[in-house]
């Protein structure tokens, strides 16, 4: 997750929002969100020079017992569920990035509150199918409601990847991206574009899927 800040504010918010903790160092005051006990869970905060200028094309969905708890962390309500008629409330994090909050009874909350990743698409079926093939999973068409879901991905700590239609094209780098294990060449052969090869500064490859959504590929552990 990109951040224009040079301090821990965004990380503190997301640590509280997903049920994790923010770990910083003297050399890294921005820090990273880790979730003890959840393999591959957490959020890496990436300092960037540019501030947010457009709606997040990739956003996160979280579970919460109350909107007030997220507001206390620094979130702002943009569109209440009561107004939209949808089962979630659209909020903004301390840097203005959109997120969706799903209310659950305290007893129903999982330890890891990050429910899923949502990706705006020009062709959601195409992008969802591409990612489902990479993960070896099926695509759920949600009974023809126009958006597509990839879920039950082995080893993935979140429940769902949703791909939803929007009219506007992607114009800037996404401020939220995801990391995967694998071989960059395999993703390229399937239609991804390599944006940056691993080098002396980074130990991963940066690629983009067929609609330009950035992701990072790491060598599998072990």
UniProtKB/TrEMBL annotation:
Record-linked Gene3D superfamilies: 2,3-Dihydroxybiphenyl 1,2-Dioxygenase, domain 1
Ranges in a coiled coil: none
Protein name listed in UniProt: VOC family protein
InterPro entries linked to this entry: Glyas_Bleomycin-R_OHBP_Dase, Glyoxalase_6
Domain Glyoxalase-like: 4-101, 117-218
Organism: Nocardioides mesophilus
